[in-house]
Specification:
Largest sheet: 6 strands, mixed
Number of strands: 13
Distance between the termini: 37 Å
Radius of gyration: 24 Å
Bound molecules: adenosine-5'-triphosphate
Helix content: 25-40%
Strand content: 25-35%
């Protein structure tokens, strides 16, 4: 089993009367890309700040690379890079000059750390261009470069895609995939738009009002959101046997309560209904189901999207 890079246990943060994070449990294994999804105000930033030790939990525990004690945690934090918002870069300095400033301030050894980080995010050729002239996408990438300067094994990114145009989103996503592939960097990335994390996250955590509602792998989520034909019948076991024997269909599940979810043969539903009716199976209902990830999330939090 893969080693866990980040584990939170009953992680809680209270700001006065506001319960920003409410006993959140997260498990993030090495090499995963974890999509932390929640509406505005759900508590994503606060979780990331606690994981990055930028704010102290009211209750609960953060474990990083297996460490929980204060001293070991401090060491483990050196293996972490965080981008919570675009850091305050100097508008009149170039990308290189800005990173060099932070490298010295943070005591990161080796001047090549700047060059490597710029290279990694594709900003090595920005020359004399000053930060103030950067596009939002470039600013986000420079923020990422800063988080990458200490060559972290874990990256914590709070809404880094927010505000980027579709092209910028694809670029940023590819950049993260490349980091993950090439350096096995484990990534925790938050967003209030689930679809932004699609094709990127390998697992998801759904957060609402500070509570972690569900943690699910991307594969399981895809499975749950798959297109299917739901058939309500009086004799599900016999109907299932018929589907298999007469039509050669195998990709289905029989749900408790007499429904069958059929994942193949959807293009010719009349074949299915014809067979069942012809064999005296009562068909009470037939519904084409399928949810995109956004629908799934909204179903989970049980409300209208306000974010
Ligand atoms: N420093 C603070 N002082 C008081 N309340 C805070 C503070 N930081 C966050 N909160 C509150 O905690 C809750 C969670 O906020 P948080 O920023 O973590 O949510 P979020 O999911 O990151 O939302 P967003 O996408 O809007 O940043 C909100 O109700 C917010 O108002």
């Amino acid at each position: 089993m893969a080693e866990n890079v980040l584990v939170t246990r009953a992680l809680t943060k209270r700001y006065g009367g506001t319960l920003a994070v409410d006993h959140a449990d997260i498990t993030l294994a090495k090499g995963e890309i974890y999509g932390l999804v929640g509406r505005n105000g759900a508590g994503k930033t606060t979780i990331i700040r606690m994981a990055a030790a930028q704010t102290v939990p009211t209750e609960g525990e953060v474990e990083l690379f297996g460490a929980t004690g204060e001293k070991e945690l401090e060491k483990a934090r050196a293996r972490t890079g965080a981008m919570v918002e675009i850091p305050s870069f100097y508008p009149y300095l170039t990308a290189r000059e800005n990173l060099e400033y932070y490298r010295r301030q943070r005591g990161i050894a080796g001047a090549h750390a700047v060059e490597d980080a710029l290279e990694q995010v594709g900003l090595a050729d920005t020359g004399k261009k000053k930060f103030k002239a950067f596009s939002l996408g470039m600013k986000q990438r420079l923020g990422l470069a800063l988080a990458l300067m200490n060559r972290p094994d874990l990256l914590l990114l709070d809404e880094p895609i927010n505000g980027l145009d579709p092209e910028g989103i694809v670029e940023f996503r590819n950049l993260l995939l490349e980091l993950n592939r090439q350096y096995q960097t484990t990534i925790l990335i938050s967003s209030h738009i689930l679809s932004e994390l699609q094709n990127l996250a390998t697992c998801y955590g759904f957060l609402d009002k500070g509570k972690m509602l569900e943690q699910i792998s991307a594969a399981k989520l895809r499975e749950k959101c798959r297109d299917c034909l739901e058939l309500k019948v009086d004799d599900a076991p016999r109907a299932a046997a018929l589907l298999e024997r007469e039509l050669g269909l195998r990709d289905f599940e029989v749900l408790p309560g007499g429904a069958i979810r059929l994942y193949e043969g959807l293009e010719e539903p009349q074949k299915v209904t014809g067979l069942l009716i012809g064999q005296d199976i009562s068909l009470y209902g037939m519904e084409h189901r399928g949810a995109n990830l956004e629908d799934y999330f909204l179903g989970l939090i049980g409300g209208v999207h306000h974010g």
